[in-house]
Amino acid sequence: RMLRGVTRSIRQKATAQRAVACGSRREASTTTKPKERVLITGALGQIGSELAGELKKRGHFVIATDVRPPPPALAEKFGRETPFHYLDVSSAEDLRRLVVEERATMILHLSAKLSATAEKDPGGSFGVNVRAVENVLETARHYGLKVYAPSSIAAFGPSTPNLHSVVDDITIQRPLNVYGVSKVYLEILGEWYNYRFGVDFRSLRYPGILSADTLPGGGTTDYAVEIFYSALEAAHPKAENPNERPFVCGVGPNRRLPMMYMPDCLQATCDFIEADNSLLKQRTYNVNAVSFTPEEISAALNKCITKLGSKTTAKPIKMIYKPDIRDSIAGTWPASLSDSAARKDWNWQHKFGLDELTQDMLERIEK
């Protein structure tokens, strides 16, 4: 009897332990990753204004910042639940104060002077493109924050192998534009902060980004967005052909560059910052979707306009090429990026090709 009693006791304990283990596994399987309090610098820019909304959809709390007030339409888009603050991120003291006051757990550093603008005023770009990067990483080290700060195709240069075909993640960079130089500094400094202090630093090298909702802000690839607005402009009273719209392009007709539609950019960015750290084999990744030339996107746009017919007010584009400093800058950039590492490590997949993004952009801009 004593033996049977001991046996029953052992079995009861084992059953209880299995029940606890099963409950723990069920709890672990249903527990979602904790959401972040994300402080965005440059929240009124092309990417920041749309990324804020995407992060909110995914359940994160967003703190928007910039050096100018949001226009009424954007303020409405942010909503009352999204705090907005003035922040000059080149001031380390102001950045730290806001991080503490808003209890931020992550910084998305999107403030930047883009390639064409920075090249015209290099000294004026150092505050936001260089010193702000240092401030963000030091603040992250001090308060244990995560950091996401995008890099760019501008981080490559003429000595990069396979520049006019497909460029790998890890290769020679050596950019010859000041914006690209600042991005290489960002990549290396962020990687060192990760190695030396364990800062969870992440960066994606963005190609040219096309948005139907936000106007571009001084980048070399802006022509690929501006062309849509030109197609929708009213005809000039003295136009030679009222059924077409002239577009002056500062990038040469056959200058191939990697590009990405904004919905894909938002998907890549959010998936990357939410990816488990154990999956990441490097701190900076290439991401790519499609590569095209000005001739190819103008042809795709004209094809789309013809297909839509009376359903659109857009008129076919007539390209007029006047290459300027933007073409010189673009000539040092890759024609395409290899993003096989991103697709393997954290399952990156793009959705929009040239024809899909062309039609979607035209329809959304016209609305």
Structure description:
This protein is of the alpha/beta class. The protein is 46% helix and 14% strand. Strands 1, 2, 3, 4, 5, 6, 7 and 11 form an eight-stranded parallel beta sheet that branches. Helix 2 links the parallel strand 1 (37-41) and strand 2 (61-66).
Mean pLDDT: 89
- Taking the alpha carbons of the first and last residues, their distance comes to 84 Å
Summarize the helix and strand pattern as letters: HEHEHEHEHHEEHEEHEEHEEHEHHH
Specify the overall morphology: globular
Q: Regarding quaternary structure, how should these chains be classified?
A: single chain
Write the layout of secondary structure elements.
Elements: H1 2-30, E1 37-41, H2 48-57, E2 61-66, H3 72-78, E3 84-86, H4 92-102, E4 106-109, H5 115-120, H6 122-143, E5 146-148, E6 151-152, H7 178-197, E7 201-206, E8 208-210, H8 223-231, E9 245-249, E10 257-261, H9 262-274, E11 284-286, E12 290-292, H10 294-308, E13 317-321, H11 325-330, H12 340-345, H13 354-366
Parallel strand pairs: 1-2, 1-4, 2-3, 4-5, 5-7, 6-7, 7-11, 8-10, 9-13
Antiparallel strand pairs: 10-12
Characteristics:
367 residues, alpha/beta, 8-stranded parallel sheet, 3-stranded mixed sheet, 14% strand, globular
Short description:
The chain has 367 residues and is of the alpha/beta class.
